[in-house]
Specification:
This protein has 205 residues and is an all-alpha fold. It has 8 helices and no strands. 5% of the residues are buried.
Length: 205
């Protein structure tokens, strides 16, 4: 489990480093709310709190998900995990209670409104990050790749072909310069590549 988490984290760290310049941090108050949800979940699902070996394994899996969501500030995912695992919660109200109190209802309404504001904030930041990413060089490259692929071209193959052509040209120039150093005569093709000769197609007719 630890090895799997380490590999996943390494991959996420790599991706985060690539796109971290597009990442928008939540406001301080929002960060505190995210931290609060994280601590609430951690106190319930830390493996040390497990009562059986099976539950310890389960809690380990849950904490991996919680830690991943917290590390990237994904409040929506944290709330999703919390709702998904309500059956473990010891502070939920009695489901057999037919008439929950008005104060409880008001508390739940306020809680849901607050969580909705957090998710709206995350959505706004994500839209901003996406807009900046699309306008970036990496984003435009991805758009070109998708367009070429849709039209039946493989952009990666095209780029590889261009790079191979450049490598061949550089090797030709290197050989020509080596010959020039030995003989004192610059090969014709090298002169063309270095722009030393202007070619007029009429010269060939």
């Amino acid at each position: 489990m630890a090895e799997e988490y380490a590999k996943q984290k390494a991959q996420e760290d790599y991706e985060r480093r690539i796109f971290e310049k597009f990442h928008k941090k939540p406001p301080v108050a929002e960060q505190k709310s995210i931290r609060k949800v994280y601590m609430e979940l951690s106190k319930k699902f830390h493996p040390d709190l497990a009562k059986t070996k099976q539950e310890e394994t389960r809690f380990n899996e849950i904490m991996v998900r919680i830690n991943r969501a917290y590390e990237i500030g994904d409040i929506a995912k944290l709330l999703e995990i919390r709702d998904e695992l309500k059956q473990y919660s010891s502070d939920t109200h009695n489901t057999e209670q037919d008439t929950p109190s008005l104060s409880f209802i008001n508390h739940e309404i306020a809680k849901v409104k607050h969580e909705l504001d957090l998710i709206k904030g995350q959505l706004k930041r994500s839209r901003g990050e996406l807009a900046e990413l699309r306008a970036s060089e990496a984003g435009m490259l991805l758009a070109d790749y998708k367009r070429y692929k849709k039209e039946g071209y493989d952009l990666i193959d095209e780029m590889r072909f261009e790079i191979e052509e450049e490598v061949d040209a550089l090797q030709t120039m290197l050989k020509g310069l080596d010959k020039y150093a030995q003989t004192g005569k610059m090969p014709f093709e090298v002169q063309m590549m270095m722009g030393m000769i202007d070619i007029d197609v009429r010269d060939f007719f």
